[in-house]
Amino acid sequence: MKAVVFDLDDTLFDHTASATQAVHAWVAELGGTPSDELIAQWFEIEQRVYGDWLTGKLTHQGQRRARIREFLPLIDRPVPGTDDEQDNAFEPYLTLYRGNWSAFDDARPALEVARSNGWRIGVLTNGSTVQQNAKLEQIGLADLVDVVCTSQSLGYSKPAVEAYQLICEALGVEPAETLMIGDNLDLDVLGARAAGLTAEHLDRAAGVTLTQLIRSTRVP
Q: Is the dihedral of CA 160, 164, 169, 170 positive or negative?
């Protein structure tokens, strides 16, 4: 191996915890009652409309507006009528989300082990370039990452073969020399393997950690 590529959300960056804390606080600010059911509905809406952005059906800001239009009625709040009003309605959640950004405890140690192996380090993420880079900066990992490729910057999103090939090119390595690690089996493992990379599934529910996956990969 000469390089390792990490997914970002729910691999290095704890998106689920950050968003859950933000929705809890936001709903309370709006006078609603946070609940596990509401959180689950938020994530269901998020996943569905985010997919519409990745396929070009919505703009990035458009998927945020779509979330507002679908979620506010669930807490009996009126939906603003104009785009600007919907953007303003989303902003308090976004501020809370940013305020709760955090890395997993094993993220920096794993990157440091990869660096000690002499590997190049990349991040491949289906997200917006500005926001994903801001996450890496705020959670204190940007200094250990050589290349960040987003679906927005590449014009391809995982699991398109081109996404993995392009980040390998950016890192100056061949796919066969590259390890991909992520929490999503389809996007981060099966997609990467189809592009010729070695790929490992980060199954945190089974007790797997990033450092375990890095240390278990043979170094020539």
A: positive
Residues 98-142: pLDDT tens digits? 999 999 999 999 999 999 999 999 999 999 999 999 999 999 999
> Contact at 8 Å (CB) between 25 and 94?
no
Q: How would DSSP label each residue in 34-57? A: --HHHHHHHHHHHHHHHHHHHTTS
How far, in Å, CA of 180 to CA of 19, rounded? 25
Q: Which of 99, 114, 141 is the last residue of a domain?
A: 99
pLDDT in tens, 164-181: 999 999 999 999 999 999
Active-site positions read 7
Rounded CA separation 7/13 (Å) = 9
For residues 102 and 15, give the distance between their C-alpha atoms in angstroms, rounded to a whole number.
Answer: 8
The CATH number of residue 174's host domain is 3.40.50.1000
Q: What is the pTM of this model?
A: 0.93
The residue from 71, 99, 127 where one domain ends is 99
State the residue range of the domain holding 85.
15-99
